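Hi support team,

I submitted a single chain yesterday and got back a structure, but I'm not sure I'm reading the token output correctly. Could someone confirm the output below corresponds to the sequence I sent? I've pasted both exactly as they appear in my results page.

Thanks,
R.
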Amino acid sequence: MFGFPKKDKKEKKVEFIPTQEQINSLKLFTYNKDPYRTKVFVHNDDGYKCDVCGTVPTFIYAGPAYCNGDIKRICAPCIASGDAAKKLNATFFDPDACDKVSNPDKLEELITKNPGYFAIYNEKWLAHCDDYCEFLGCLDFDEMDKLGITEKVSMLLEDNEYGYTLKEIKKGMAKGIIKLCVFRCLNCGTILVDMNM
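Hi R., thanks for writing in. Yes, this is the structure output for that exact sequence:
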């Protein structure tokens, strides 16, 4: 009698836990220095090839892309080099959603050589000291604690354009209707927040 091994109906998928070296391999970008933490790259579970260079990367891009075609898989080095933007005629952030800076090359680098990010509604990339800021992520207060910026962010939120109290903002975050997109100036270290709702 022949038979095939029975498959366990409840096969457990092994959770991928990256090494620090794998995480560091993503740190290629001027305006998003930790794209694994900001969740714009995910583990390439299925071993797909990059649409640009054909390698099988550990991580693939999971952020926004603006182009005419369908982009499925891109590796971090192809975004950082600008090859992905050139080959796919793509940008990774909407240029109209970026603060203005005087040097147009900085905008070009931001939208063609850096990963974008997703928020609840309209994403916005903030600038300070006439340069784009580093995106730290759409963070909750526990994540801000880990980065040591909770007090600075809380002070910024006390005087927000919407007139919400800190308690109301935290309640909105818990309900998933408010996201705090946090940035840090590359030149002076100032923390900036875009309250996305």
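A quick pointer for reading it: Residues 1-7 have pLDDT under 50 and may be disordered. Let us know if anything else looks off.

Best,
Support desk
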